[in-house]
Write a structure and sequence with these properties.
Low-confidence stretches: none
CATH superfamily of the largest domain: Medium-chain alcohol dehydrogenases, catalytic domain
Number of strands: 15
Distance between the termini: 12 Å
Largest sheet: 7 strands, mixed
Structural class: alpha/beta
Order of helices and strands: EEEHEEEEHEHEHEHEHEHEHEHE
């Protein structure tokens, strides 16, 4: 292999808010040849999700935080360029937790185990609609939200990679679906392309007033990606027996200084409702089921999605920031190489 230098982003300073210029350091190292049972991957696309910002905090979470001096953790799609592993061959396209670097030597295990990209599937789709975001939407909506035909469903962060798929899944189940998003372009896409019945622009409209107007019989399922004031508002307009799926809280910025919890939580008692958090890692054994169903819905045109692809490994830190400044449109990705 001609390339012997591996560029890697390592964590050098824990951020307090958005990613700063000194949060990460771009370093160079020598590519590590694979040993028996390992293979070498050249990364093609990196995946960006809000939870990555949370991994930078030195606090207890569902996984250990990224440590100072460690390569930044991330899902990616890559191509096998050298292999001493029986299940992976040179040329295979694979998805796994390979991190912010050009090359990764791996045995295929870890928090995000490596798996091959199925034939006929675009590599980027394995990080978006068939990746963690699509899988999160699938299990969060169906297993936690449990929408029934005729329900009214509201999704916040609805133009994002997870929210947009979650809302479309609810629509497939026969629900009235309202999305909350920021700006006329995102709201227009939700209605015109993603099959949502209505969209609320939180940047220019009063969310609670609009929810009351659009949902006169109250809300049966609320899929929450943002937390904060919008979650508090939604609690005031849930129906009896409502289900709230807690997926994310991007309004917090995922820093260490989190806002207070919802003050309207007693509505869960009054309306005999349920609010439940979930993690996609708990559904790993059922990923094939979800991918198969999502693929059928995409093929039939019942689910559409967007991918926002930035360019160049050197732009990884600012690409992560795009999730918290509202710049991304759909699933945020970063292309760092082309397949050979």
């Amino acid at each position: 292999m001609a390339a012997t230098i591996n560029r890697q982003w390592i964590l050098s300073k824990r951020p307090e808010g958005l990613i700063e210029d000194n949060t990460f350091e771009l370093v160079e190292s020598t590519v590590v040849p694979p040993q028996e049972g390992e293979f070498l991957v050249r990364n093609l696309y990196l995946s960006f999700d809000p939870t990555q910002r949370g991994w930078l905090n030195d606090t207890r979470g569902y996984v250990e935080p990224v440590q100072l001096g460690e390569i930044m953790r991330a899902s990616s799609v890559g191509q096998v360029v050298e292999s001493r592993h029986a299940d992976f061959s040179v040329g295979d396209l694979v998805v796994g937790g390979f991190g912010w670097q050009e090359f990764a030597t791996t045995d295929g295990g870890g928090m995000i185990p490596a798996r091959k990209v199925p034939p006929g599937i675009a590599p980027t789709n394995m990080l978006s609609v068939f990746g963690v975001t699509g899988l999160t939407a699938y299990f969060g909506m169906l297993d936690v939200g449990k929408p029934e035909s005729g329900d009214t469903v509201v999704v916040s962060g609805a133009a994002g990679a997870t929210g947009s798929v979650a809302g479309q899944i609810a629509k497939i189940q026969g629900c009235q679906v309202i999305g909350i998003a920021g700006g006329p372009a995102k709201c227009g896409w939700l209605v015109d392309q993603a099959h949502f019945d209505q969209a609320i622009d939180y940047k220019s409209e009063n969310v609670l007033d609009r929810v009351r107007e659009l949902c006169p019989s109250r809300v049966n399922v609320y899929f929450d990606n943002v937390g904060g004031q919008i979650l508090d508002d939604m609690l005031l307009h849930i129906a009896i027996g409502a289900r709230i799926a807690l997926c994310g809280g991007i309004s917090s910025g995922y820093g260490t200084d989190l806002p207070p919890g919802p003050k309207n939580y007693m509505q869960l008692v009054i309306q005999r409702a349920r609010m439940e958090g979930f993690l996609i890692l708990d559904y790993a054994a059922r990923f094939p089921e979800a991918v198969q169903q999502l693929a059928a819905w995409v093929s039939s045109g019942q689910i559409t999605f967007q991918e926002d692809i930035q360019e160049g490994l050197e732009n990884a830190p600012e690409t992560l920031n795009r999730l918290f400044t509202g710049q991304n449109v759909g699933k945020q990705l970063l292309r760092i190489a082309d397949p050979q």
